[in-house]
Amino acid sequence: MLLLAPMEGLLDxxxxxxxxxxxxxxxxxxxxxxxxxxVLPERAFVRVVPELLNGGCTRAGVPVRPQLLGxxxxxxxxxxxxxxxxxxxxxxxxxxxPAKTVNNSRGGAVLLDEPELVGRIVAAVRRAVPxxxxxxxxxxxxxxxxxxxxxxxxxxxxxxxxxxVVHARTKAHGYRxxxxxxxxxxxxDCLPSSLRVIANGEIWTADDAQRCREVTGCDxxxxxxxxxxxxxxxxxxxxxxxxxxxxxxxxxADFWQQVGRRVERRHRAGRLKQWLSALRRRHSEAxxxxxxxxxxxxxxxxxxxxxxxxxxxxxxxxxPEPVASPPAEMAPAC
Length: 334
Known about the structure:
alpha/beta; 14 helices; about 10% strand
């Protein structure tokens, strides 16, 4: 099984839609939905996971599991129960986000210093949702170190989660290579066989995927930055081919069309450049495209460039719905 990772600020519903159409992805996890001290309205879940209005799937039919982030077991349980009413293909819990603002609000990876709380959160959510709704979790190896990795993984397993994604680095490691895949193998040794363990971290190529499987013993992988940089990565891992730059160009055009409908005018060019910047890692043509568009900010100018590249006229949305925030640099997978 290959999962598409959440990437706050980049891998949103628009990019999920485009990337899942290239093939090879079995399931996605959404960006986190922050839960604080209230039960969110249904529109808050749909805003982050509009696929909930499409049977919980992207247009390509790939299921999207919404992810919740917070630290209050009761409030998370109440929100999970509300979310379950929208019939999601499961609910995921975030114990891995390394962002300082999230950690300072007692969310994400900082909770890994409190395995008992991690277990209570998972147990509360598991009790709150119907048995047929799977509950999964994503964690790092720890916050400052990995001394409590086994404690956290066991707490998640014993609380009733059916799947655990392990990002093979601590919060302190950030996204610096390497990923410590051997620690995932050690975690698997202490966990019940009923818990599906999914390996995540530094999977950029099919060779990386093969080595990760050999080291971790995990057949299942989660890929994030590698898939954004190479939309054909999942196919390559499955030995089902690749995606060329000529195949990516129509995806860029469709991505741009969706950005035009969902993002404020002043932020649209940034979103396209953000993805192009990631694509440069794998495609030299993306370098040239990025250099060409680097100083362009007007959507009409980008329309014209895409028309030249794809040979089609880009229709311009008349009434965009501004829902997105400004683009960031290549966003990490939370």
